[in-house]
Amino acid sequence: MPNKSPILVTGAAGKVGAVGRTVVEILREKNLPVRAFVRRFDERSQALSNIGAEIIAGDLTNGSDVKRALEGCRRMYFGMSVSPPYLEATVIAAAAAKEHSELEVFVNISQMTVSQMSLINMTDSPQQRQHWLGEQVLNWSGLPVVHVRATVFLEHFFFSDWAAASIAKDSTIRLPFGSARTSPIAVYDVAQVIATVLESPSMHIGKVYELTGSQSQDMNSMAAEYSAALNKPVSYVDVPYDEWYKKELSAHGLPEHVLNHFATMAQLHKENRYDRLTHDVEKITEKPPLSVRDFVKQHADLFLKADKITMNL
Fold this sequence. Notes:
The protein is of the alpha/beta class. Helices cover 45% and strands 14% of the residues. It has 13 helices and eleven strands. It has helices spanning 19-29, 43-50, 63-70, 86-98, 126-141, 161-170, 187-199, 219-230, 241-249, 256-270, 280-285, 292-298, 300-312, and strands spanning 7-9, 34-38, 54-57, 75-78, 105-111, 145-150, 172-175, 181-182, 208-211, 217-218, 235-238. A seven-stranded parallel beta sheet has the order 3-2-1-4-5-6-9, with helices on both faces. A two-stranded parallel ribbon has the order 7-11. The longest helix is centred in the middle third of the chain and has 16 residues, at 126-141. The model has no long low-confidence stretch (mean pLDDT 94).
């Protein structure tokens, strides 16, 4: 790929998860040209500019903005934050890409729950339904698509900020997952897969990659990983779902779309729908995904910060 042809990365300045931002960072580490599509110019887009990314601001639900962003690009990654117009943005991106005859690959971030969904077997999450429908549209488009279906992220509030606050308060992780297993994955591992595909896409066209962490384990085992990483006792408290929803999830003041999505994720966890284990990360990147213990060690500052906040209350 000539250096003058940048790789378009959408959702590049996202906050939670930040897959797009991490993809940009990895591609720039490889000295590949990147065009980062952001919602607005701010300190996050400036950070991407500082590492050599070209910045373009726009709205993923605006066809003119997306078409402008694609000009001169041959490879693109599509993703955006959890939001009501996700499907609209997916269709607009597909339409813009369809007009772009030189496109070599369209890498689409999706969710592993999609593999268990169909027209007659959806979930209660509007976001997950949009991911399923988005995959259908992209498949119909005839574009050179690669779907990357990730399981729940280790950076999700379930396992990061909310877990840190609860551990700081009383050394517990409080979730309504029962005895079900889960296999969360680090954003960096997902971004590594995406960056690898974008760097050399030809062998990946038409593939679906399902990404999980290094093992699937119940929350008692997960709590033991946190305990070992933080060198302090951590236990899991199985909170009844209705109680967790009313007293804990609802207290965070999330937008309705996000609230419904998180509530569904918790319910699906309880139903053991996240008990999945694949080896696609290692197959693509030739490196195993990060373990829960190593993830917590790498983000020890998050848990230390929560400790300090709790002590000052």
